[in-house]
Amino acid sequence: MLRHELNKLKDMGLLLEVNDEVDVKFQLGGILKKYKNRRPIIFNKVKGYKIPVCGALYTDREVLYKLANIKHEERIFKFMESIANPKPVKLLSYGPVMENIITNNIDITKFPHPYFHEKDSSCYITAGMLVVKDINTGKRYTSIRRFQVLGKDKISILIASPYLTNQFLEIEKQNKPLEVAIVLGYDVPFLLASQVSSELYGVDKYEIDSALRGEPLEVVKCKTVDLEVPAYAEIVLEGVILPNVREKEGPFGELMGYYGQQAMHPVIQIQAIMHRNNPIYQTAFPCREEHLANGLLREVELFYSLKRLVDVKDVHVTLAGGYRFHAIASIRKKQEGDGKTAIIGALSSIKDLKHVVIVDDDIDIFDRDDVELAIATRFQASRDLVIIPDACGSSLDPSHTLKGVTDKMGIDATKPLNNERFERCKIPNF
């Protein structure tokens, strides 16, 4: 999984190897941020630890495409195919992640968990993939969560997801713990599968992984919980979310560069650790890797929402908008009003989406200059601006948290039909 992709990144000349000693407190995160979290880096010498740390592996769209062996124009259809036609996994009796199994004297502080920002409450596990089983169906659910390190065998979890929250609250009412595993050291198919909505599609995410990778995901049984984990993962923490236990979590430097608020959150008791020989610790600067993958899946949802209404060419959920707040869509305009229809469809398709720009199919929606040209020359605020006040938004937007609602805006930057004044200048044979 991870080791294979690190080798692929190295072969492509994309992996930066840092051999100078770095400190997990601020310095490691500072280097990732210096490269705008878009350059895959492995830190081979981490102060106080014998374990290398890698980060920013899956933060660039083109790099992710190469690792997943997909083309940009086929991404949406490949993701939908994997959701519609999941494939079975392969259970192994043994895998490399089982080379070391620790069930006594648990101490997760031996791993190099980074401390990212000045006011962060603790060091955090930011790339940890949470694995649980649906308590009603047994289907496997995966999602990246943030985990605050509380001690040698305890971490807190920011659940956030309504689906996972409901699962935990349902079992907590019975005063029972929820069994979990946290995986570090995974690859692109595992990451992409984790971002598919279990609530929306009701699918086993391990089986989506198998469909995406084109072969069965190989898994092994955990030692202390009834869960399976990838056989080639680097590190797995096994434990339970304790019922009726909460501890303070935060503040923590979040996605958009602001601190998340301190609150009381559930606690995980770690019961076992499995790891490979000479493990590689996987981290993510908060939290680009998860959100690029999440943005790609949001593009799937946005595309199919618009497809029902207009002739959509492509969609782009942007990096600068945190892969959730801003989107651009290009359409093949057939009638006046298509731009407004697309705005309504886009803003209703994703709750977090705050601003959307609709352009014609001659605009490259992945080129900011081209999009700005469309806004500058095809948009008139008095007739092409759509504002929806006091709608549901995202708690990751500080301006939303002030009132609990957010204003949403759509910009119709499509040109009028059959108007030669908007013909783009071209140079023959270029």
Automatic annotation (TrEMBL):
Domain 3-octaprenyl-4-hydroxybenzoate carboxy-lyase-like N-terminal, chain residue ranges per copy: 6-82
Domain of life per record: Bacteria
GO cellular component: cytoplasm
Pfam families assigned to the protein according to its UniProt record, in alphabetical order: UbiD, UbiD_C, UbiD_N
The 3-octaprenyl-4-hydroxybenzoate carboxy-lyase-like Rift-related domain, residue ranges: 95-288
Record-annotated 3-octaprenyl-4-hydroxybenzoate carboxy-lyase-like C-terminal domain positions: 294-413
GO molecular function, a single term: carboxy-lyase activity
Entry similarity comment: Belongs to the UbiD family.
Annotated protein name in UniProt: 2,5-furandicarboxylate decarboxylase 1
Species of provenance: Caloramator fervidus
